[in-house]
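Hey, quick one: can you model this chain's 3D structure?
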Amino acid sequence: RKLRKQRIENKKKRKEPPKPWGKKERYLVGITLLATVLISAISAMGAREWKLAGVKRFKLPSLNFFKEETITIGEKKTVSDEELFKSEKIINEFVDKTNKLSGVYAFSVINLSSGYVYGVNEDELMEAASLIKLPVMALSFKQAEEGLLNLDEKYSLKGSDKIAGSGSLFGKAVGYQISYREILKLMGQESDNTAFNIMRLKFGDGAINTFAQSLGMKNTDITKNQTTAEDIGLFFQNLFLGKIVSEQNKEELLTNLTKTIYEDYLPKGVPIDVRVAHKFGRETGVLNDAGIIFAPKPYILVLMSKGTIAKEVETFFPEIIKSIYQSQN
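Sure thing. Here's the predicted structure for all 329 residues.
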């Protein structure tokens, strides 16, 4: 009897083995895995601006969150049949090639002889990257003409100027003396972010945006660091035509944009003896290059991209730049 009693007590103390997951647990794990996959997929597509290689760009028509590519070829009555044919050929090549790539691409061409404009996605809002330095440089020369800024005045480098963390000036000690003229040169030829930060803080974002708007750059915002290929093309057109600053300051600004340390795109797509005054900009997933090609038949070319894969854009840009040059000259 005593032995039997001990066995009963032991049985009560014995733990039952864990039961397998029930339906609730399995549903919870399944939903968690599905949500993880969906979030990863959405993040990946978002990083590529909802445009994957070989796939049409995703769009929600009812909410109008995403625009389809827009194509502009100007008014037929303003151009010859030959120029119209060539522009349509470039547009088709651009669309065909970028449809096979990830991310969104935009371009604009302005014939400086006829004023004829054509391109793709010209009004698409894009990350400006260092293209945003263009209106800042122009405003500097404009204020110099108005007596509001002495370009030869020395500026003492401050610690707060170096928050951008790159460029020749970033390596200089606090108190380093440099003229505004030299600062603008560094902004153009080296895309120096510390130099840019000095001028940005001097003018303020509000004044810079107001100036950009006065030039017709209606979609350009330095605070949001955004612009369009159309705005950048208009900037270079007005600069070329002498509508922004004097001839002397125009030439100095263009000189600052010539033979920069970033010559791998627009300049390499044209013959070596052709002058190219341009601004290059690059961020993660973004590569932009825009400027004036001083060919026998001068023209403006703006190339912008977002959500791209570096190897793809680095291969595509030189190809389309060369095709456009051959088409224009």
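One thing worth noting: The chain has ten helices and ten strands.
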